Amino acid sequence: MKTIYIHILFVVFLSAVFSSTAWAQKTQLTGTITDTETGKPLAGATVILKGGKQGTVTDNQGRFSLSVSDASPKAITVSMIGYDRQEVKLSDNQGLAIQLRSSSEQLDQVVVAASRVEESILRSPVSIEKLDARAVRQTPSANYFEALNNLKGVDMVTSGLTYRQINTRGFNSTGNSRFLQLVDGVDNQSPGLGFSVGNLLGVSDLDVESAELIPGAASALYGPVAFNGLLYTKTKSPFDYQGLSVQQRTGVNHVADPTGDGAKLFSETSVRYAKAFSNRLAFKLNASYLKGRDWYAADYTDIDPNTNPEQRGANNPGRNALNIYGDEVAQTLTGIGRVSRTGYAEKDLTNYDVYSLKLNGALHYRITNSIEAIYAINVSQGTANYTGSSRFMLNDFRLTQHRLELRGKNFFVRAYSTAENSNNSYNTRSLGQLINRTWVRDLSGNVVTPDKADATWFERYGAAFSGSIQGVAGQNNDAARAFADQGRYVPGSAEFDQEKDRYIHIAGLQGAGVLSQSKFYHVEGLYDFSSHLPAISLQAGGNVRYYAMETNGTLFEDKVNKVRVSEFGAFVQASKTLLSDKLKIMLSGRYDKNQNFAGNFTPRASAVFSPNDAHHFRASYQTGFRNPTVPDQFIKLNVGPIIILGGAPANSAGLNAYENSFTSASVGAFGAAFGQDLAAGTPFPQAVAKNKDKLVKSNVPYIRPEQLQSFEIGYKGLLTPRFLVDLSYYHGQYRNFLINQVVISPKSDVLLADGSVNPAAAADVLTAANRQAFQLYTNAADRVSTDGASAGLTATLNRDYLLNANATWAQFNILDANPNNIPAFNTPRFKTNVVLSNDRITDRVGFSIAWHWQEAFDWYGTFTENRPGRIPSYSLLDAQVSYRVPSLKTTLKLGASNLANNYVVQAYGSSAVGGLYYLTLTFDELMR
Fold it and tell me: What region holds the TonB-dependent receptor-like beta-barrel domain (predicted)?
């Protein structure tokens, strides 16, 4: 089943290619495009043969060349951002001289993602932002992905050079499974992680044509992952963007690093080559390689929850430092108090010399002027540090994708596969704890086995503190720690490095390694019936997805019983214009079915009222849902005192965890009361009988999708031809959030036939051998809501200056919900962006400057067991100045990301990210 869909599409692909007709007689269409007012050549203008897909773009001298057949339509469409679109009739195919006039097109772009059809951004039924190729070229940020942070409503968490995570409208995290990222329609998520790894894997800046972003639910058109929003990145066609482009970016970071480390070099090399033959066959190749020293997670704040805040700090014997690992292991010693083991700093356990390698190739064949077949392969590999339930090193993490597509003017059929390879990745916190258990000596000086190491270390500490060890001062915590640490492997030593490497390559509970070679396969299609239905516009589509998880028993119980999950979805969308094209009504509906959940229907309804071409009012009702990831459904990890159990019914078969268990809180209350009575002399059976009714049978439902309903109103209008305002307000209601719940399952039935608590089950929970603790994946019935508003201003000023400014407000309303049942909102109330740019101050000089500010807020994450960590308010200033040498097709850019070098932590426990200063040299479309 896992390959049948690709095989079917491959047959269709080959049949279409080999059934195509012979190529017609070709002639060459050439010309130049210039600015009407200045007469200067326009680089990057798009030239498309009317009625087909054939096209090209102008070079740095404003010149273009396009191969056309005798049968081709005799007209071309010429467009460029910031200029009026123009249609030119062809009476002579030689030496065209075309002039474009400046206009507000920068303010009225064409978008696709909002409705899955081309439409004016002014008449989009929902909020949408767009970053085009011109903006990518001008951004002062180090790459296009980072530049997304300047778009309205975006929240971005930067964990390091190679890992950034994007989100919109709250419930933010460093691994965001609620936000869909597509590259040319391909889901960029990792099958095992269940989310996209940001900018680590994906597309090179040289190949980005545009990026469209929808803040808010897009499930009605894109399915379960688009719960909080969608990023759709489109790459450059090899027909339109030909030639060789080379970009070298060199820079430094760690300037004035608070850790005391000196400045480090950063380098990124990108190459793109594309070639078209007779406007029928074209290919492109991309390669990008980035390397540098990542920023450090070096916050040693004592966060031990069992120590009073005023007693925390470097001198606390029970210290649990945020970015030191191994010191989480602690005990309360009689006569001493709380004591933690000596841990290892993250910098000694992880790899901060990171890299990102992105390789891409694509072959395009135009069967006719309107039907195109595409095969593409993407291979990405890199390293990154990210914060989840622990700190993880994604080491040599690889994602391989194949895409096969047939696309026409009103349809597409697409099949792709995604495979990950995680052989060298590891859990940094676990690594510190494991190394700590390899060298501990008993009181006789003999190294003990790892299973006895922690208890022996605390025994040594207690003996030294009590004064029982000759030559060691008693009642001295420092002396006791030094004695307990005798034999400790020092970071950088041969013994330390040997144990570190050994545990990295042991996957599962016995080591720190994270193994996954999981895959998923996806087939989808869409057809636009609008040309056959003059009264309405109608689109319909659907998809099938199949997950094949492979962890060799380290995360799932999949050595024998393989974890396989299939799902499908289908949608239909209809729209109609009324009132002389002033009112546009759109209705969408999608049905999705995962094999482990009931089917889910997500509708969307919207209306756009445009009293004239300048002013547009919109209102929409949107719904979203999110299927639990495959790990949420099927993880089965026995960590000793507790089994972590995914919430799919099949995953817990025979364990009775959901059906036959007590709540953890009631077991605690029962145990305390039983213990008091037993100490007072009550016999065991009577003490059980007296207190058994304190036990409460758990009622944990199997896992199911999260749900969202959202209402949005907005206005987008041209107050003048050069002045655009975009306003929006939304209200969202959420339910069925995914949570974890701990239960205790006894061997006996928890209830008797009459519904009362079984005394035998009550006795079971008092004995470790007769009970099992489970951490179950489930959903909370609690409801919460969010509200938000945003305002954006875009102005094209005199002399080609462009101003973008936006501000966003977001509010979380917990209502009557239990805070323990709701994922962290992790979003500042206020944030704002201002970008001022001019690509042509002179013929050769351009610049851009961007300012971002956001308010302080508390970050909650599983890394700190959902205890809050403060993220202070901060501002970032990015800037660049560019210099062009048209004769050499070369641009030189000097820039800085975080120019003021503010070391900022954007997720509690993650790295403090400072400035990046760079020089970029770009040779564009050589050998064209």
Answer: 426-899
**CA atoms of 285 and 733, how far apart (whole Å):** 45
Mean pLDDT of 401-423: 96
Q: Residue 489: CB partners within 8 Å, gap ≥ 6?
A: 435, 438, 439, 495, 496, 499
Specify burial of residue 303 (Cβ count, 10 A radius: 0-12, 13-18, 19+). Answer: buried
* Number of helices followed by number of strands (H, E) in the chain: 12, 52
Ramachandran bin of 467, using left for φ above 0, alpha for ψ from -120 to 50, beta for the remaining angles: left
Q: Are strands 129-132 and 208-215 parallel, antiparallel or unpaired?
A: antiparallel
Residues 837 and 847 sit within 8 Å (Cβ to Cβ): yes
The pLDDT tens digits for 254-298 are 999 999 889 999 999 999 999 998 779 999 999 999 999 999 999
Q: What angle do CA 33, 85, 412 make, to 5 degrees?
A: 110
User: Could you tell me if 502 and 510 are in contact, meaning their C-beta atoms sit under 8 angstroms apart?
Assistant: no
**For the chain, what percent of residues have pLDDT higher than 90?**
75
Q: Which two tokens stand for residue 13?
A: 């692909």
CA dist., res. 664 & res. 655, Å (int): 17
Q: Indicate if the pLDDT at residue 104 is higher than 60.
A: no
Give the mean pLDDT of the chain: 91
Contacts of 741 (CB under 8 A, 6+ apart): 664, 698, 700, 775, 776, 778
Q: What is the pLDDT of residues 157-193, one digit of tens each?
A: 999 999 999 999 999 999 999 999 999 999 999 999 9
The contacts of residue 167 (CB under 8 Å, 6+ apart) are: 154, 155, 156, 157, 173, 176, 178, 179, 228, 229, 827
The token duo for 66 is 């396009």
Alpha-carbon Rg for the chain, nearest whole angstrom, is 30
Question: How far is 179 from 167, CA to CA, in rounded Å?
Answer: 6
Least Cα distance to 250 among 236, 227, 235, 270 occurs for 270
pTM (2 decimals)? 0.89
Token pair in block for residue 694: 């304190």
pLDDT in tens, 326-361: 999 999 998 999 999 999 999 999 999 999 999 999
Query: Of 9-23, 243-257, 343-357, which range is least confident?
Result: 9-23
- Could you tell me which of 577, 575, 542, 608 has the C-alpha nearest to residue 221? 542
Please give the Cα distance from 730 to 732 (Å, whole number): 7
Question: Residue type at 554?
Answer: T
Stated as kind and residue range, the H or E segment containing 666 is helix 664-679
- Give, for 718, the enclosing helix (H) or strand (E): strand 706-720
Q: Which tens digit of pLDDT belongs to each residue from 609-645? A: 999 999 999 999 999 999 999 999 999 888 777 899 9
In this structure, which amino acid lies at residue 774? Answer: F
Domains and CATH numbers, the chain: 4-103 (2.60.40.1120), 632-702+739-779 (no CATH)
Calculate the alpha carbon distances from 152 to 212, 216, 831 in Å.
12, 12, 9
Task: Kindly report, residue by residue over 193-230, the tens digit of the pLDDT.
Answer: 999 987 888 899 999 999 999 999 999 999 999 999 99
Rounded distance, CA 569 to CA 551, Å?
Answer: 27
Beta strands in 139-188 (DSSP E): 154-160, 163-168, 179-183, 186-187
